[in-house]
Specification:
- The protein is an alpha/beta fold.
- The longest helix has 21 residues.
- The chain has 15 helices and 16 strands.
- The radius of gyration is 21 Å and the shape is globular.
- The two termini are 12 Å apart.
- The chain has a single domain, classed as Alpha-Beta Barrel (TIM Barrel), CATH 3.20.20.
Amino acid sequence: MEAFMTAHNGAGDDAVRLEGIDNTEGMNGTEGITRAYSSRIGFVADAPNFPAAWDEVVEKVRIADELGFDSIWLGESWGYELFTSMGDLLRATKRIKIGAGIANIYSRTPALIASTIATLDERSGGRAILGLGPSGANVIEDWHGVPFEKPLQRTREYVDIIRMILRGDKLIYNGEFYHLERGFKLRFKPLRADIPIYVAAMGPKNVQQSGAIADGILPTFWPGTRWHELRAQLDAGAQQAGGRAGLREATARIAPYITTAILREDASEEERVVISQAMSFPLAYYIGRMGVYYAQMLRRNGYEEDVQRVIEGWQQGTRAAVAAISPALLEATMLIGTPGECVAKLDRWVAAGVDEPILTMPTGSVDETAAQLSALKAALSEIPVAGSTLG
């Protein structure tokens, strides 16, 4: 672990390629050392409820594209339609990848999702990523009007069928939910038969299944103290399934959504406290008001007492629930700090197993967001101090 954080110097050292940090020059001490993961950082774009803000969302995504960040991910609930919005962003950008984060596995058929993502991928020159997940019982049953049944099995069938369609196979499939026997094939050849498919997995069974069938997973609020356990679960799932047949990489990528606040270099302690309190709300909400999945995941990962305090807090109201978020839980699940502090924490998390960090798009005006993204990019390009650890 410490080797990851330490920049080697001195003429004659062999080329250094450490996990997450790459010395592309090799013979010139710290010169040329870069954080390899910096080319894999993405952002979750805002999905506002009011159409007037969409132009700002698009402009922020353009800035991320120009600065060389890797991906943008869009969510969906009961607001803007996901794939239409992805099309807007793909047309507005040149090189950045755009991910569905996520399309639920109930309101659209696997065939519709496959043809949609293949169309977007073709029109964008191969920049589309598909994220799938069950969403939650409330939105599936009370918005889409579909029974929330067996999400694990449905996820498996969706991934299977979508991959068959993208490969150009005749669609003959017999599962628990889908029985397809006429042998239809997609009427155009996808630009990529292996469009990456990520799964929003949190429970042990879903994580293990994802280790066998998915290109990556999209955990949310997974504690940074437990990345190694997540990796172990993914690899165990692949091993139990006899490998990752047909997939490009030997293991699924860990691409966590990381709630992020990038602070000014001169941010006061009072400002830090205010930001931390504001950042506590979504975590408290997910623990106590978004079903049981997040609470169960955090309990399994050693935060039983924290979760219980938040749940008890909700009995008294929102303010008590938010106040129950401990500094330790906030530190374990979020990224709050100056650009340099955020990068130091990312260094540690990448060393522990994160492959593709997906951060919250900075809030504020377009100009403010541009300044924060630029500051983060500059911090990522700074060379680690020789002989010392970051953070």
